[in-house]
Specification:
With 430 residues, the protein is an alpha+beta fold. Strands 5-14-13-12-10-9-6 form a seven-stranded mixed sheet, with helices on both faces. Strands 1-3-2 form a three-stranded antiparallel sheet. It is globular, with a radius of gyration of 23 Å. Helix 11 crosses helix 12 and helix 15 crosses helix 17. Helices cover 40% and strands 24% of the residues. The two termini are 38 Å apart. It folds into three domains: 73 residues; 169 residues, no CATH class; 169 residues, Arc Repressor Mutant, subunit A (Orthogonal Bundle).
């Protein structure tokens, strides 16, 4: 872990741990309370204390099984506490989602922010369908919690849960929807996740449970590759942070259209193989769905290298791999500030054009961008002939034979990426 590239957060937290002997205090007292003012001396606390996924936690936290939660407007607790919840995406086929024909202000070209994706889901009637009653969009944004306390599980075996008192901490709601019987709280992500910070549902849940007599339903919504996944939870015991339990999962696809082998064959007949890009490594990003998610994030705004690493489902090394993959495909531009030397990534014009298309055409265009490269096209052609994706040893040999200056040892590792990208194409056809 310590050999991984460090972010600004990693460096700042290491300095804070040294300045305030945080590890020693945690080992002695089981926790450490740190103020925003203390954090701000090294970097803004708003950038330093919110980790939507566990992979975003600073390296020193991960090394010692620590996490952090706000306990007031100006203080945070650092302790060995279990703050995140694992997400498993099911294989259930998505139901179609389509806005009423008269709505023109939301379209495929601007569906990449969390707020707009959530608006789509509400106006399509998805939220009403999930709770089986008419709802109204009533609240969103930042607000203060009430005073409350809860227990949270330790990340250290055989250690008792920690008791935490919260005094008007800040919390944020992406969308609150009220009906006759229920109040629905939604935390929205415009990318697929492996886990999420329970606090983003738990703190608003405690706030609104204390305000309303109606049942409060906490929901995580992710929007990835034009598919909404809704994870409907409940807290079995209100005062237990880790009592979160999945009740139901629902999936909806925007304007689903089948991609056939014929569609892809038609693409193949028109594709001209492009030269390998100079100065960009052959891809080593094993999940093409995350490449697509990264493009969607950059559709909202350009992002620095640290912003991608600190806020999304990447560590620093993965940020390099996935941005390089986008550059390899000609879909991401990289720039470096001449003064600060800060690296920023943005979409190319071609990428913006692709992302503005309807889902079927968008995915076909992404398939085309992959198959423009000789290795990928050769492996896919072989997959069509065999009726299955070639084994990694076969792919490795194709990489070596392609004479793109990759030796056999490296080719073995890169074969995993080629296999997974072809598998992504295969899945679109299926």
């Amino acid at each position: 872990m310590m050999n991984k590239p460090k972010t600004k957060n990693d460096n700042a937290w290491e300095q804070l741990f040294n300045r305030y002997s945080i590890l020693e205090e945690v080992n002695k007292n089981g926790q450490f309370i740190i103020s925003s003012a203390q954090i701000n001396k090294f970097r803004e606390s708003r950038l330093m204390a919110k980790f939507d996924q566990s992979i975003n936690l600073p390296q020193i936290f991960l090394a010692h099984k620590l996490s952090i939660l706000p306990v007031s407007r100006s203080e945070y607790i650092i302790a060995p506490i279990d703050t995140h919840y694992h997400v498993t995406y099911g294989t259930i086929p998505p139901e179609p989602a389509q806005l009423p024909s008269g709505i023109k202000s939301i379209d495929y070209s601007n569906l990449y922010s969390e707020a707009i994706a959530l608006n789509w889901a509400f106006n399509d009637g998805i939220i009403d369908e999930m709770v089986e009653e008419k709802t109204f969009h009533t609240v969103s944004g930042r607000m203060s919690t009430t005073k409350f306390n809860f227990s949270i599980s330790s990340t250290i075996a055989d250690r008792a849960p920690l008791q935490i008192n919260v005094d008007n901490s800040q919390c944020e709601i992406d969308g609150g929807f009220e009906g006759e019987q229920y109040f629905v709280l939604i935390e929205a992500k415009n990318y697929a996740v492996d886990d999420f910070l329970i606090r983003q549902l738990y703190y608003p849940y405690r706030l609104w449970s204390s305000k309303l007599s109606k049942k409060v339903i906490p929901i995580l919504m992710t929007f990835s590759q034009d598919v909404f996944d809704f994870f409907i939870y409940e807290f079995a015991t209100e005062t237990e942070y880790n009592s979160i339990t999945l009740v139901k999962q629902k999936r909806y696809a925007i304007a689903p259209e089948e991609i056939t082998t014929g569609d892809v064959a038609g693409l193949l007949s028109q594709i001209n193989v492009v030269p390998e890009p100079q100065g960009i490594p052959f891809p080593q990003a094993n999940r093409f769905d995350r490449v697509v998610d990264l493009l969607s994030l950059l559709a909202v705004k350009p992002l620095t290298k640290d912003e991608i690493t600190e806020n999304y489902e990447f560590d620093a090394r993965q940020t390099n791999y996935y941005t390089d993959a986008g550059r390899y495909l000609g879909l991401i531009d990289k720039s470096t500030d001449s003064v600060t030397r800060e690296v920023t990534f943005s979409l190319t014009d071609e990428a913006r054009l692709i992302l503005s298309k309807k889902p079927k055409q968008k995915h076909l265009e992404l398939i085309r961008k992959i198959l423009e490269h000789n290795v990928y096209q050769s492996v896919f052609q072989l997959a069509l002939q065999q009726g299955k994706i070639p084994e990694k040893d076969e792919i490795s040999q194709i990489i070596v034979d392609s004479q793109i200056n990759i030796n056999s040892t490296t080719a073995q590792r890169r074969a995993s990426t080629v296999h997974s990208w072809i598998q992504w194409i295969w899945k679109q056809i299926e």
